[in-house]
């Protein structure tokens, strides 16, 4: 990914045009006015997080807890222990994919609320390919499983995308309906079709088999990153499952950044998002682009469940974690639909989720308080972005006069 | 199991969808999309149960509607005053409502997912009609809230089409600039539409918890808030149409209860309401005409 931030490196400089690429990658805008606004914009997420924490503090005060102690506990639990750090990264991994999937659809003004259903179907596909193909080497099996997961996501995104483009059905309602259908379908496939009948039931035939699919072959499991981190002197204990999908997610964010800002495909996404009619007039097939982007969003969504499936459980059961799709929406909003912002948002949510466990155990604060903070954070972050961009607009107008 | 029993069950299942769909008509005719209706319904189920548990069903209805309105107020502040994306704000409402009710349920009932049994309204029998044997299952043991919901259909029709408030609401949804020029307070009117939708979604949630089930259960709305939006679209943004659409969805739910004993796996039966929603939306949408300014935040000076 480091190559793509300097696409013209190694090429001879062109004297006539004063190297636009270098200007584009300046960290701060050159113009002092733009620089001032940049700091305003950079500060917004922090203001929103502060506001959400403030609301959380009010709730903690209401149930008789000292918010400063709770937050201190949250931080020391999350960053004072190496297994917490690993867990945060592990929790962030699916959220990176979910956030990227949501962000991509938001980029073209489509609201793929169906990441939830798409990743469940993706996990079903991955699980089937993962346990049914036997004897393959990992370098063939693992990519096949990943492709299957993406295919599942695409399939589940296809109908809402088709209905949106051809029939004008609002994608929010159709994807939510698809989410419910996906869960029932997954339930049926696990319980009635692919249930693992070879499970050994407790001694004497007591107990009942788990409602799960057969175990996924070792050749389709994702290895953990422990060895990689050990090079840097970070030794995660074995009950931490931080795995290579974290790396895949970060790489995918880089690819997405490149696609959106550096390719014709991404240009069409941005043009359609700005003004579909103008894009049409400029020769872009807006509907086709929306359709493709939506399917691509579904493909990324298909990957959301893999970290849990291939690195942690090793099988698909009916208690497979849900709700990642909705967290992904929040993460995308936090990251302002920017791929690298999504990574930061995902790590923040990983921290909140790990911290919630800490405060629940050590401070007696229900983990739901943290859920409320997350909800408030989403709202305050979009409100904050809106206020700041409006402030900037007014300032620009004033200074232009 | 006869036709009249099926109709009776369909009527009872369609009430929460109908109430929320009527709410959706108010907010969307004012030009504000409210995806957060599901969350407002969830708030209604919980606060309806709380009010009913401690003080009886009337307080339950009051608290349920107030809870829906409170969330609606946040949605209105975010999407009308601050003009943030209405879908985003609605999604945030749903997440917020789910987290808040779970937290509050622990605080009130020391259980995360259910409340104890709560008091219900005394069921009614519609006089005269209950003498007709075919109608008997439909009109006996009727919750007063069912009657309220059905009465709200003509009331909503009258309010929208025959009152000054309704005219303003519709004009704001169709052309806020024109309405503003004629002295209509666009912001206030949109707030009113959103708040009414929250109150009705809260009432729908209260019906589910207090009347239908007799207790609060986490996730008991099961996406009915979204189905209600589909019903409103199917009903072409009009109260009478929304009523028929809600009845269709109610019927599909009650059929799904009745085929449980058949050979079809129950997971597929559970899908029926959602599949019906998809099919209906796919088949009907071309004829639908949403308000012209639906979902577009109004900004003076048209920036």
Could you explain how this protein is built, in words?
By secondary structure, chain A is mainly α. In chain A, 69% of the residues lie in helices and 0% in strands. Chain A contains 16 helices and no strands. Chain A is globular. With 303 residues, chain B is mainly α. Chain B has one domain: ABC transporter involved in vitamin B12 uptake, BtuC (Orthogonal Bundle), CATH 1.10.3470. Chain B has twelve helices and no strands. Chain B is globular. The N and C termini of chain B lie far apart (60 Å). The mean pLDDT of chain B is 89. The chains are: A mainly alpha (401), B mainly alpha (303).
What is the secondary structure topology, with strand pairs?
The complex is a heterodimer of chains A (401) and B (303).
Chain A: H1 20-24, H2 32-62, H3 67-79, H4 82-107, H5 115-132, H6 138-167, H7 171-193, H8 226-230, H9 245-262, H10 264-274, H11 276-281, H12 286-301, H13 306-313, H14 324-334, H15 339-362, H16 368-400
Helix pairs in contact in A: 2-16, 3-15, 4-9, 4-12, 4-14, 4-15, 5-6, 5-7, 5-12, 5-14, 6-7, 6-12, 9-10, 9-15, 10-12, 14-15, 14-16, 15-16
Chain B: H1 3-29, H2 37-55, H3 57-81, H4 86-109, H5 136-139, H6 144-162, H7 164-174, H8 176-181, H9 186-213, H10 224-234, H11 239-258, H12 266-284
Helix pairs in contact in B: 1-6, 1-9, 1-10, 1-11, 2-3, 2-4, 2-9, 2-10, 3-4, 3-9, 6-7, 7-9, 10-11, 10-12, 11-12
Question: What do the pLDDT scores of chain A average to?
Answer: 87
Query: In the CATH hierarchy, what is the architecture of chain A at level 2?
Result: Orthogonal Bundle
Please give the largest β-sheet of chain A.
none
- Regarding CATH, which class of chain A? Mainly Alpha
Shape of chain B: globular
Mean pLDDT of chain B comes to: 89
**Biggest chain contact:** A-B, 44 and 44 residues
| Helix content estimate of chain A | 55-70%
Q: Please give the share of residues in helix of chain B.
A: over 70%
Specify the overall morphology of chain A: globular
The multimeric state of the shown protein is heterodimer
Query: What CATH architecture of chain B do you see?
Result: Orthogonal Bundle
Task: Assign the CATH topology of chain A.
Answer: ABC transporter involved in vitamin B12 uptake, BtuC
Q: What Rg of chain B do the Cα atoms give?
A: 19 Å
